[in-house]
Specification:
- The chain is an alpha/beta fold and 237 residues long.
- The chain has a single domain (3-233), classed as Spore Coat Polysaccharide Biosynthesis Protein SpsA, Chain A.
- It has helices spanning 16-26, 43-53, 68-81, 101-107, 129-145, 162-169, 180-191, 214-230, and strands at 3-9, 31-36, 57-61, 86-89, 113-117, 124-125, 158-161, 195-199, 201-202.
- The strands form two sheets. It has a seven-stranded mixed sheet with strand order 3-2-1-4-7-5-8, sandwiched between helices.
- Helix 3 (68-81) crosses helix 6 (162-169).
- It is globular and about 50 Å long.
- The two termini are 27 Å apart.
- Bound molecules: guanosine-5'-triphosphate and magnesium ion.
- Residues 7-10, 12, 35-37, 65, 67-68, 71, 91-93, 95, 205, 210-212 line the site of guanosine-5'-triphosphate.
Protein backbone atom coordinates (compact mmCIF):
# COMPACT_ATOMS: atom_id res chain seq x y z
CA UNK A 1 0.00 0.00 0.00
CA UNK A 2 1.35 3.42 -0.83
CA UNK A 3 1.05 5.92 1.97
CA UNK A 4 1.36 9.67 2.21
CA UNK A 5 2.27 11.55 5.37
CA UNK A 6 1.04 15.13 5.51
CA UNK A 7 1.91 18.01 7.77
CA UNK A 8 1.13 21.73 7.59
CA UNK A 9 3.77 24.23 8.64
CA UNK A 10 3.71 27.77 9.89
CA UNK A 11 7.01 28.84 11.47
CA UNK A 12 8.41 25.37 12.04
CA UNK A 13 12.02 26.03 10.92
CA UNK A 14 13.30 24.62 14.20
CA UNK A 15 11.44 21.31 13.79
CA UNK A 16 10.80 20.43 10.18
CA UNK A 17 14.15 19.08 9.03
CA UNK A 18 14.40 16.71 11.97
CA UNK A 19 10.79 15.62 11.52
CA UNK A 20 11.23 14.73 7.83
CA UNK A 21 14.42 12.80 8.59
CA UNK A 22 12.78 10.86 11.43
CA UNK A 23 9.73 9.96 9.33
CA UNK A 24 11.89 8.62 6.50
CA UNK A 25 14.05 6.73 9.00
CA UNK A 26 11.05 5.06 10.64
CA UNK A 27 8.97 4.47 7.48
CA UNK A 28 11.25 4.66 4.40
CA UNK A 29 8.42 3.59 2.05
CA UNK A 30 6.18 6.62 2.59
CA UNK A 31 6.02 9.91 0.72
CA UNK A 32 5.72 13.21 2.57
CA UNK A 33 3.61 16.20 1.54
CA UNK A 34 3.96 19.57 3.30
CA UNK A 35 1.95 22.77 2.88
CA UNK A 36 3.70 25.89 4.13
CA UNK A 37 1.79 29.16 4.42
CA UNK A 38 4.67 31.52 3.60
CA UNK A 39 6.15 31.21 7.10
CA UNK A 40 8.01 34.38 8.09
CA UNK A 41 10.77 32.28 9.72
CA UNK A 42 11.87 30.79 6.37
CA UNK A 43 10.37 27.29 6.79
CA UNK A 44 9.34 27.41 3.09
CA UNK A 45 12.90 28.04 1.83
CA UNK A 46 14.23 25.32 4.10
CA UNK A 47 11.63 22.93 2.68
CA UNK A 48 12.59 23.79 -0.91
CA UNK A 49 16.22 23.01 -0.13
CA UNK A 50 15.22 19.75 1.55
CA UNK A 51 13.05 18.65 -1.37
CA UNK A 52 16.14 18.71 -3.61
CA UNK A 53 17.72 16.16 -1.29
CA UNK A 54 14.66 14.07 -0.47
CA UNK A 55 12.91 13.11 -3.71
CA UNK A 56 9.94 11.67 -1.80
CA UNK A 57 9.22 15.03 -0.16
CA UNK A 58 6.72 17.27 -1.98
CA UNK A 59 6.16 20.85 -0.89
CA UNK A 60 3.31 23.23 -1.68
CA UNK A 61 3.53 26.93 -0.88
CA UNK A 62 0.51 29.10 -0.22
CA UNK A 63 0.68 32.87 -0.24
CA UNK A 64 -0.20 33.43 3.44
CA UNK A 65 -1.70 31.94 6.57
CA UNK A 66 -4.86 30.43 5.10
CA UNK A 67 -5.75 28.23 8.08
CA UNK A 68 -4.94 24.74 9.22
CA UNK A 69 -8.24 23.14 8.20
CA UNK A 70 -7.99 24.36 4.62
CA UNK A 71 -4.44 22.93 4.41
CA UNK A 72 -5.75 19.54 5.57
CA UNK A 73 -8.52 19.59 2.95
CA UNK A 74 -5.90 20.31 0.26
CA UNK A 75 -3.89 17.35 1.56
CA UNK A 76 -6.92 15.06 1.33
CA UNK A 77 -7.49 16.14 -2.29
CA UNK A 78 -3.78 15.72 -3.06
CA UNK A 79 -3.81 12.18 -1.63
CA UNK A 80 -6.84 11.16 -3.72
CA UNK A 81 -5.60 12.85 -6.92
CA UNK A 82 -2.23 11.12 -6.59
CA UNK A 83 -3.79 7.77 -5.85
CA UNK A 84 -2.42 7.10 -2.37
CA UNK A 85 -4.12 4.25 -0.49
CA UNK A 86 -3.51 5.85 2.90
CA UNK A 87 -3.17 9.41 4.17
CA UNK A 88 -1.67 10.09 7.60
CA UNK A 89 -1.81 13.62 9.00
CA UNK A 90 0.26 14.99 11.88
CA UNK A 91 1.59 18.21 13.40
CA UNK A 92 5.10 19.36 12.55
CA UNK A 93 6.20 20.27 16.07
CA UNK A 94 6.84 16.75 17.46
CA UNK A 95 3.67 16.74 19.52
CA UNK A 96 2.87 13.75 17.32
CA UNK A 97 5.81 11.40 17.63
CA UNK A 98 6.76 9.63 14.36
CA UNK A 99 7.48 6.49 16.42
CA UNK A 100 3.72 5.80 16.32
CA UNK A 101 3.62 5.60 12.50
CA UNK A 102 4.16 1.81 12.21
CA UNK A 103 1.29 1.16 14.65
CA UNK A 104 -0.97 3.54 12.75
CA UNK A 105 -0.16 1.92 9.43
CA UNK A 106 -0.95 -1.48 10.93
CA UNK A 107 -4.29 -0.34 12.38
CA UNK A 108 -5.43 1.34 9.16
CA UNK A 109 -5.14 -2.00 7.35
CA UNK A 110 -8.37 -3.08 9.08
CA UNK A 111 -10.05 0.30 9.64
CA UNK A 112 -11.19 3.26 7.55
CA UNK A 113 -10.03 5.82 10.10
CA UNK A 114 -7.48 5.74 12.93
CA UNK A 115 -6.75 8.48 15.46
CA UNK A 116 -3.91 8.83 17.98
CA UNK A 117 -5.70 9.45 21.26
CA UNK A 118 -4.57 11.25 24.41
CA UNK A 119 -7.71 10.21 26.23
CA UNK A 120 -7.74 6.42 26.07
CA UNK A 121 -5.96 4.25 28.61
CA UNK A 122 -2.21 4.56 28.12
CA UNK A 123 -2.43 7.96 26.41
CA UNK A 124 -1.49 11.33 27.85
CA UNK A 125 -0.47 14.89 27.18
CA UNK A 126 2.35 17.20 28.18
CA UNK A 127 0.43 20.47 28.33
CA UNK A 128 0.24 22.60 31.47
CA UNK A 129 -2.91 22.84 33.60
CA UNK A 130 -4.79 25.49 31.58
CA UNK A 131 -4.25 24.01 28.11
CA UNK A 132 -5.05 20.53 29.41
CA UNK A 133 -8.30 21.89 30.83
CA UNK A 134 -9.14 23.64 27.50
CA UNK A 135 -8.38 20.49 25.51
CA UNK A 136 -10.40 18.23 27.83
CA UNK A 137 -13.36 20.63 27.82
CA UNK A 138 -13.29 20.92 24.01
CA UNK A 139 -13.28 17.13 23.66
CA UNK A 140 -15.98 16.67 26.27
CA UNK A 141 -18.31 19.20 24.60
CA UNK A 142 -17.65 17.90 21.10
CA UNK A 143 -18.38 14.31 22.19
CA UNK A 144 -21.50 15.31 24.07
CA UNK A 145 -23.03 17.72 21.56
CA UNK A 146 -22.11 15.78 18.43
CA UNK A 147 -22.64 12.33 20.02
CA UNK A 148 -19.17 11.14 19.08
CA UNK A 149 -18.09 7.88 20.70
CA UNK A 150 -14.34 8.35 20.20
CA UNK A 151 -12.58 9.80 23.26
CA UNK A 152 -10.32 11.99 21.11
CA UNK A 153 -11.72 14.32 18.49
CA UNK A 154 -9.40 17.32 18.35
CA UNK A 155 -5.86 16.17 17.67
CA UNK A 156 -4.72 15.85 14.06
CA UNK A 157 -2.71 12.59 14.27
CA UNK A 158 -4.96 10.56 11.98
CA UNK A 159 -4.96 7.95 9.24
CA UNK A 160 -7.56 7.68 6.46
CA UNK A 161 -8.16 5.10 3.77
CA UNK A 162 -8.65 6.40 0.26
CA UNK A 163 -12.27 5.26 -0.09
CA UNK A 164 -13.19 7.21 3.01
CA UNK A 165 -11.33 10.30 1.76
CA UNK A 166 -13.37 10.22 -1.44
CA UNK A 167 -16.61 10.10 0.58
CA UNK A 168 -15.41 12.88 2.92
CA UNK A 169 -14.59 15.20 0.03
CA UNK A 170 -18.17 14.81 -1.20
CA UNK A 171 -19.53 16.27 2.04
CA UNK A 172 -19.97 19.88 3.03
CA UNK A 173 -17.04 20.89 5.26
CA UNK A 174 -17.47 24.30 6.83
CA UNK A 175 -14.36 24.87 8.98
CA UNK A 176 -11.10 26.33 7.70
CA UNK A 177 -9.32 26.64 11.08
CA UNK A 178 -8.78 24.34 14.08
CA UNK A 179 -12.47 23.42 14.40
CA UNK A 180 -11.94 21.44 11.20
CA UNK A 181 -10.59 18.62 13.38
CA UNK A 182 -13.72 17.88 15.38
CA UNK A 183 -15.93 18.60 12.38
CA UNK A 184 -13.96 15.91 10.51
CA UNK A 185 -14.45 13.36 13.31
CA UNK A 186 -18.17 14.22 13.25
CA UNK A 187 -18.29 13.57 9.48
CA UNK A 188 -16.09 10.44 9.61
CA UNK A 189 -18.12 8.77 12.37
CA UNK A 190 -21.29 9.31 10.30
CA UNK A 191 -19.70 7.79 7.22
CA UNK A 192 -18.11 4.67 8.73
CA UNK A 193 -18.05 2.58 11.88
CA UNK A 194 -14.63 1.13 11.08
CA UNK A 195 -12.79 3.62 13.28
CA UNK A 196 -10.09 2.99 15.85
CA UNK A 197 -8.24 5.05 18.45
CA UNK A 198 -4.97 4.05 20.02
CA UNK A 199 -3.06 5.69 22.89
CA UNK A 200 -0.41 8.31 22.21
CA UNK A 201 1.58 10.56 24.47
CA UNK A 202 1.19 14.09 23.09
CA UNK A 203 4.30 16.10 24.00
CA UNK A 204 4.27 19.90 24.10
CA UNK A 205 5.94 21.40 21.00
CA UNK A 206 9.78 21.02 20.93
CA UNK A 207 10.55 24.37 19.29
CA UNK A 208 8.68 27.54 18.26
CA UNK A 209 5.41 29.07 19.38
CA UNK A 210 1.76 28.10 19.42
CA UNK A 211 -0.40 29.41 16.55
CA UNK A 212 -3.73 28.84 18.17
CA UNK A 213 -5.40 32.19 18.87
CA UNK A 214 -8.35 33.25 21.04
CA UNK A 215 -10.21 33.87 17.79
CA UNK A 216 -9.76 30.20 16.84
CA UNK A 217 -11.22 29.11 20.18
CA UNK A 218 -14.21 31.42 19.64
CA UNK A 219 -14.71 30.12 16.10
CA UNK A 220 -14.48 26.57 17.45
CA UNK A 221 -17.34 27.17 19.88
CA UNK A 222 -19.49 28.69 17.09
CA UNK A 223 -18.77 25.72 14.78
CA UNK A 224 -19.59 23.27 17.56
CA UNK A 225 -23.02 24.79 18.11
CA UNK A 226 -23.72 25.02 14.37
CA UNK A 227 -22.90 21.33 13.97
CA UNK A 228 -25.00 20.53 17.04
CA UNK A 229 -28.02 22.28 15.50
CA UNK A 230 -27.46 20.51 12.19
CA UNK A 231 -26.57 17.07 13.48
CA UNK A 232 -30.03 15.59 13.08
CA UNK A 233 -30.10 16.79 9.47
CA UNK A 234 -26.75 15.26 8.52
CA UNK A 235 -27.23 13.53 5.20
CA UNK A 236 -24.61 11.41 3.52
CA UNK A 237 -24.10 12.51 -0.04
N1 LIG B 1 0.19 25.76 6.69
C1 LIG B 1 -0.28 26.11 7.90
N2 LIG B 1 0.12 25.44 8.98
C2 LIG B 1 -0.37 25.83 10.20
C3 LIG B 1 -1.26 26.91 10.37
N3 LIG B 1 -1.55 27.02 11.69
C4 LIG B 1 -0.86 26.04 12.32
N4 LIG B 1 -0.14 25.33 11.42
C5 LIG B 1 0.67 24.13 11.66
O1 LIG B 1 -0.23 23.16 12.16
C6 LIG B 1 0.35 22.36 13.17
C7 LIG B 1 -0.44 22.54 14.47
O2 LIG B 1 -0.30 23.86 14.94
P1 LIG B 1 0.18 24.21 16.44
O3 LIG B 1 0.53 25.65 16.55
O4 LIG B 1 1.22 23.23 16.86
O5 LIG B 1 -1.16 23.98 17.22
P2 LIG B 1 -1.32 23.32 18.62
O6 LIG B 1 -0.65 21.99 18.63
O7 LIG B 1 -2.78 23.37 18.93
O8 LIG B 1 -0.58 24.33 19.58
P3 LIG B 1 0.94 24.31 20.14
O9 LIG B 1 1.50 22.95 20.00
O10 LIG B 1 0.87 24.80 21.53
O11 LIG B 1 1.71 25.24 19.28
C8 LIG B 1 1.80 22.80 13.26
O12 LIG B 1 2.55 21.97 12.41
C9 LIG B 1 1.76 24.23 12.71
O13 LIG B 1 2.96 24.66 12.13
C10 LIG B 1 -1.66 27.61 9.19
O14 LIG B 1 -2.45 28.55 9.21
N5 LIG B 1 -1.15 27.17 7.99
MG1 LIG C 1 1.38 21.83 18.36
Amino acid sequence: MNSLIFTATYNEAGNIERLVKEIFQIEPSVDIFIIDDNSPDGTGKLLDAMSLKFKKLKVRHRTGKLGLGSAHIEAMKYAVENNYDILITMDADFSHDPKYLPEMLKLIETNDFVIGSRYVKGGGLGYGFIRTAISKTANFLARLLLSIKLKECTTSFRAFRKDLLIKILDQKISSTGYSFFFEMVFIVTRLTSKVSEFPIYFADRIDGESKISKNEIYRGVVTLFKLFLNRFNFKKK
